[in-house]
């Protein structure tokens, strides 16, 4: 990569203070300029953002697994003879 070369990452770019650039849910690109003084910091910030995205995916998967567990327990409750109204009331 040449000095002061433009990059177009597909992840949000964060400042040194950790404040991110707000992007919509549709992937966008953000132009940044890197130079000798900030190229390593830019790489670190982008990697950390990728790591955060990875955690986000894992959290979503965990939440889905919890919902699947709830669904299975509701099915079991029906098999034990609980009515849909009793099941619904248990959630309120």
Would you give an account of this structure?
By secondary structure, the protein is mainly alpha-helical. The protein has one domain (6-90). It has two helices and two strands. The chain has helices at residues 39-79, 84-90, and strands at residues 6-7, 32-33. Strands 1-2 form a two-stranded antiparallel ribbon. The radius of gyration is 23 Å and the shape is rod-shaped. 2% of the residues are buried. Mean pLDDT is 77; it is low at 7-26.
Task: State the main characteristics.
2 helices, two-stranded antiparallel ribbon, 52% helix, 92 residues, mainly alpha
Write the layout of secondary structure elements.
Blueprint: E1 6-7, E2 32-33, H1 39-79, H2 84-90
Antiparallel strand pairs: 1-2
Q: Which consecutive residue ranges, at least 5 long each, have pLDDT under 50? A: 7-26
Number of helices: 2
Order of helices and strands: EEHH
Helix proportion range: 40-55%
Oligomer: single chain
3D shape: rod-shaped
End-to-end CA span: 58 Å
The order of strands across the largest sheet is 1-2
Largest sheet: 2 strands, antiparallel
> What amount of the residues lies in strands?
under 5%
What structural category do the secondary elements indicate?
Answer: mainly alpha
What is the compact description of this entry?
The chain is mainly α. It is 52% helix and 4% strand. The protein has one domain (6-90).
């Amino acid at each position: 990569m040449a000095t002061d070369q433009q990059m177009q990452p597909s992840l949000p770019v964060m400042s040194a203070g950790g404040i991110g650039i707000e992007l919509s849910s549709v992937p966008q690109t953000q132009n940044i300029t890197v130079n000798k003084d900030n190229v390593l910091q830019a790489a670190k910030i982008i990697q950390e953002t990728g790591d955060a995205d990875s955690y986000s995916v894992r959290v979503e998967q965990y939440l889905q697994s919890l919902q699947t567990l709830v669904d299975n327990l509701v099915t079991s409750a029906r098999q034990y003879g609980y009515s849909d109204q009793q099941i619904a009331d248990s959630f309120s």
